[in-house]
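Researcher: Let's try something more involved. This one mixes different molecule types, so please make sure each is placed in the same coordinate frame as the others.
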Amino acid sequence: MFIVQQLSRSHLLPINLEVNAGECLSIRGPSGAGKSLLLRAIADLDPSEGSVSLDDTSRDAMQAYEWRRLVTYVPAESGWWANTVGAHFEESDIAAGYLMQFGFPDDTMSWPVDRLSTGERQRLGLLRAIVQGPRVLLLDEPTSALDPEATAKIEGVLHEKLDAGVSVIMVTHDAAQAKRLAHRQFVINDGALVEETP
Amino acid sequence: MSYESLNYWDIALAASLLCINAGLSIYYKLGTAKRLVVAAIRMVVQLTLVGLVLKALFAAISPWLTLLAAVMMVGFAGREAMARQDRTFIGFWGYGLGTVSMLMAAGIVTVFALSTQFHADPWYDPRYAIPVLGMILGNTMTGVSLALDRLLSEADSGRAKIEARLALGHTFRDAMQGPLRSAMRAGLIPTVNAMAAAGLVSLPGMMTGQILAGVDPVEAVKYQLLIMFLIAGGTALGVFCSVMMALKRLTDSRQRLRLDRLDLPH
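Model: All components are placed in one shared frame. Result:
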């Protein structure tokens, strides 16, 4: 069980959330409403007040980097710090197992990063997070740069992860996608998070 | 020792060379004529005052006055180092970071030199202490300001890369590897270049001064070597201290990237 209690930061009202293992929440809302700020605050990338815990362990009880391995934020535009794709993976063998599922050929790990398209970066950014085996995925518009075919592949992977007990909190503008993936849907407006009743 | 004292006409004659600068500025409308005049006047006034201050200081040989002069020099160096950066920390650390690291680095190396190689008596004799500190400080300042400028601007422009690593559970130290290394390199390279080019491309200023003052060139070279090594050590210490302190200030107990502690670009 992933629990967010009274989490607040600038531009964000106190937020409470409970997410079960294998559950997916979607969040929509106008730009500037605080969607990314909320995900960043949960991942502890920005200072915030309140408490966040995973299976009764508070994030303050562990090192920040341990927390971020368990609760991993994937931004819409991923950052790349080395020259080749493979250099961004600690264990490229595990990553290689996922390549096909994400729609990549076997030699992808040797590709230079600056030749990647926006969509490829987005898919590899998600793959990079998933191979580390996080318990909670915080996805910021995970398929915003993808065509329907690639989107379907990514949703397939996400379904598989949900079945394996990973929790997902996902910002998406795609109502159909929210319907396909999310168990509960939320809307954020002026920093306040509200559950939408179906 | 033979030594030619200059009279004021000699200097005025040399100053007339500035007419070339002024002529260029006016002909090509560079807009630097006024700044040139102000800078030249500032230089004359500042150096004349410094000459008088040093004369009084050398006559007094007081540890406290020497210390006061040293602290003021470090203070000015701190301000200059901060002015040379595009991005600085908000509040005290904007000024304090460079100043504290220069104080430490230049202080340690100067005291080391005075107490071992220079055999000055007393060791704080301002005739040795002030010029040595000045040379070490000047170069340390260049190194520190280049390193800090590089570190902070790369932290800022490389935010996506750094936070991508943080989000994946890398430590802040690992995530900052790239900016850290290029900052250190930026700070240390000028010393390496100066050492490599010394004697071939340029005759170092201190050595030239000693030779003009009638010192045997071989002796002047020995002094210059000593100073270059002190400068190298001081710069390395200063760059290391300032980069480490800046890294600490760029993050917090939760290993976040705290760009909110930086001032907006000037």
